[in-house]
Amino acid sequence: MTTDHTAPRRILVTGVGANPGFGLTRSLIRLGHQVIAADANPLAPGFLLPGVEPRVTPLAADPDYPQVMAKLCRDLAVDAVVAGIEHDLAPLMDMAPQLEADGVRLWLPDAESVRSCIDKAAFHQVLTKHGIPTPRTWLPETIDQVPNHMPLVVKPRRGHGAQNVHFVDRRDQARFLCKLVPDPLVQERVYGYEFTADCLADRTGRASVILRRRNLVKAGLAAVSSTFDSPAVRTLVVKTLGAVRARGVCCVQGFVSDEGVVTITELNVRIAGGFPLSEAAGADLVGQMVNGLFGMPVDHSRLTYKAGLFLTNYIETLAVGDVAELEFTAAAEGGAS
Questions:
Q1: Is the pTM above the cut of 0.85?
Q2: Distance between CA atoms of 46 and 85, rounded to whole angstroms?
Q3: Is residue 37, in this structure, part of any structural domain at all?
Q4: Which of 145, 183, 246, 248 is the 20 to 30 A CA-CA neighbour of 118?
Q5: Domain that residue 233 falls in
Q6: 49: Cβ–Cβ under 8 A, 6 or more apart, which residues?
Q7: What pLDDT does residue 211 have?
Q8: Are residues 281 and 177 part of one domain?
Q9: Rounded Cα gap, residues 42 and 8, in angstroms
């Protein structure tokens, strides 16, 4: 099967201040595409990548977001938009008919599928309905049903990036945190080694899965990770993708206990921050995503990988400069407000 992702495209990537959008931008540039890097923060690291066209946009919750994004796509002759952060998914879904009418491509699941992944309570319901092991989950109004002295996790129902996530040992502690965490839910804490599955599901529902063990996690990001293979984990990940009707690129997270029990914890409708390891292990993840994005076949034979490779991340200084000058440059080039 032939691939054509080397044909240059103009692709707008949102959320380039975070690892997923930053890494996706770098990978697209390496494939020869022109990236319009979008973020609400004028100091987003992705703006400093060589060759990008930086554009400051409103936050996704801002009423002006759809108008600004649509204008950017028209003015800059954007071929496609890829969300690098969860917050952009809902407004982009609403904008899909307008963007497609303007010739701008998106590749997302249906709206109900996106909602069931963004909303952790809805995700729990879907997985439970399909018999997929997932942590027991309670909303604040049902917290009295939580067994006492159970290790728990309190997190935002629609959060991301491990923000406002707290681990507690008792129900009364969780009850207190529910007053502080925005739109909270409570989950049973699971133990074992944590994994991420980098996934690409084509339009027929066929999916390729690359498994990465999260050997060392800091602030929600895998500082050290390694590829592995497990038929049990792969089977459950593919079942999860089918349950939520996933399409396009996404990532599934979960745990494997010491006894080998696999538990799925979440599915993100975006590329994962640690996906460069999957590409280093041989999977043409971004290239095949671009193929699917532009209506070409996904070559699943290009999404195989080698187990046993590792990747380490560390914080480095990308640039040092005059803040006022950088803000002026990004805002002037963006012209979006």
A1: yes
A2: 13
A3: yes
A4: 145
A5: 113-117+191-312
A6: 16, 22, 25, 26, 29, 35, 37
A7: 98
A8: no
A9: 26
